[in-house]
Amino acid sequence: MKPVKLTICGWGPYKEKQEIDFSGFKERGIFLITGPTGAGKTTVFDAITYALYGNMSGEVREKNSVRSDFAKADTPTYVELSMTHKEKTIPSTEIRNTCVPVNERVQERLQKKRSGRFLPDRMEG
């Protein structure tokens, strides 16, 4: 399998649609994803893994935890992957996974927590 293009939206630190084009590496055969701590390497691997399998690449992260904190409420959270396998192109429309949106109660609690008005369940009226 060779990735051709990865599209992420509302994913991790990316609040809007972002595309990573791997096609420039086609002739090289192999490439390295590298960068300093926090550069987003794991985000790329998580997105590829989630596109293919519907799960994260590590056991620590949960699949519903990847929704960007910076995305607008109406921005969808999804990943799409175009790839080639044995010289056959598999378009992103066949490899797309959407994260289940966080329910409204959780969203409301997150907004309260961010604004400093968060109270545990037993104290909320």
Describe the structure in your own words.
This protein is of the alpha+beta class and 125 residues long. It has two helices and five strands. It has helices at residues 41-53, 104-115; strands spanning 2-9, 18-21, 78-85, 88-90, 96-98. Strands 1, 2, 3, 4 and 5 form a five-stranded antiparallel β-sheet that branches. A hairpin with a 2-residue loop joins β3 (78-85) and β4. Residues 117-125 have low confidence and may be disordered.
Jot down its keywords.
single chain; disordered C terminus; 20% helix; 2 helices; alpha+beta
Give a summary of the structure in a few sentences.
This protein has helices at 41-53, 104-115; strands spanning 2-9, 18-21, 78-85, 88-90, 96-98.
Record field, number of beta strands: 5
Quick one: biggest sheet?
A: 5 strands, antiparallel
Assign the structural class, choosing from mainly alpha, mainly beta, alpha/beta, alpha+beta, or little secondary structure.
Answer: alpha+beta
Average pLDDT value? 75
- Relative strand content: 15-25%
H/I helix tally: 2
Radius of gyration from the alpha-carbon trace, in angstroms: 17 Å
Share of helix among residues? 10-25%
Cα-to-Cα separation, first versus last residue: 53 Å
Characterize the overall form.
Answer: globular
Low-confidence runs of at least 5 consecutive residues:
117-125
User: Could you spell the SSE succession in H and E letters?
Assistant: EEHEEEH
- In quaternary terms, these chains amount to single chain
